[in-house]
Every structure is written in C-alpha cells, then in structure tokens.
Amino acid sequence: MTKATGGESVTLDLLKEKTAEFAKERNWDQFHSPRNLLLALVGEVGELSEIFQWRGEVPRGLSDWKEEDKVHLGEELSDVLLYLVRLSDICGIDLGKAALRKVGLNAIKYPAAGKGSSEQT
Ligand SMILES: Nc1ccn([C@H]2C[C@H](O)[C@@H](COP(=O)(O)OP(=O)(O)OP(=O)(O)O)O2)c(=O)n1
C-alpha cells in the first residue's frame, strides 16, 4: 500500500478524516452540504479535463509530459478524489465498501468467460 509522507497508509478512511478535519478547523462544515460538494466536485472534474483539452490522445504513462504538468495533473486528480470522499462522508456512504460492492456487481454484469474478447456492451 502507498505510504503517505508521515508514514501512515493512504486509505479512504484517512482521507475522510483529513478532509473532515480541514473543514472543521476552518468552520467550513456549514458550506460542505451535499449539493455544494457535488458542484465543487464537478468543477474540479472540469479543471481536470482542461489539462487534457486540445492535447489529442496522450500516451499511457504520459512519458512526453513536462514534470510540472504531471504535478498539476496530480493536484487536480486529488481535488476530485477529496471532494468525492467528502461528499460520500457527508451523505453517510461508506465509499470503500460501496466501491468494492460495485466491482462485484460489474463482474457479474460483465462476466470474464469470454476472456480475450474486448467486446463492450
Ligand atoms: N470550501 C472548500 C474549498 C476548498 N476545499 C479544498 C478541497 C479541494 O482539494 C481544494 C479546492 O481548492 P480551490 O477551490 O482553491 O481549487 P483549486 O485548488 O483547484 O484552485 P484553482 O481553482 O485556483 O486552480 O480545497 C474544500 O474542501 N472546501
């Protein structure tokens, strides 16, 4: 598992705690309503999209990207993740459990029996 700089594991629970603490310390809980968080999340998805806008297709691994562009990408990906984690928390959804359950549902919906087949429904 990835380690955070402080030595602790990066888990959804850790991010949930950190985002809750961040909002509490600033008295921003009042602004973190489900609707506000959803709009903030969508805004950050837009910022993430801007990074790829007009570049055409890019190689996996982003081998020809400048380091500063990769850092920027990490920041926007993080904003999306942090708002998603916070939104889930505020809505009382255990995101880790919900995501694992969804992975299971996806596997049922798209059985791997036809391995090697890349067909999508
Ligand atoms: N009311 C707020 C405002 C910000 N944040 C946190 C969550 C995001 O990780 C980050 C978003 O901050 P900005 O709105 O400043 O967005 P950017 O960091 O993308 O800055 P900019 O839009 O100037 O590029 O801060 C938050 O939790 N609650």
Task: Give an overview of the whole structure.
The chain is an all-alpha fold and 121 residues long. The protein has one domain: Helix Hairpins (Orthogonal Bundle), CATH 1.10.287.1080. Helices cover 60% and strands 0% of the residues. It is built from 4 helices and no strands. Helix 1 crosses helix 3 and helix 2 runs antiparallel to helix 3. The model has no long low-confidence stretch (mean pLDDT 93).
Descriptive key words:
mainly alpha; 60% helix; globular; binds 2'-deoxycytidine-5'-triphosphate
SSE topology:
Blueprint: H1 12-25, H2 34-52, H3 67-90, H4 95-109
Helix pairs in contact: 1-3, 2-3
The site of 2'-deoxycytidine-5'-triphosphate has 8 residues, from helix 1 and helix 3.
Outline:
This protein has 121 residues and is mostly helical.
Number of helices: 4
> How is the main sheet built?
none
Shape: globular
Would you tell me which CATH topology applies? Helix Hairpins
Number of structural domains: 1
Q: Could you give the count of β-strands? A: 0
Strand proportion: under 5%
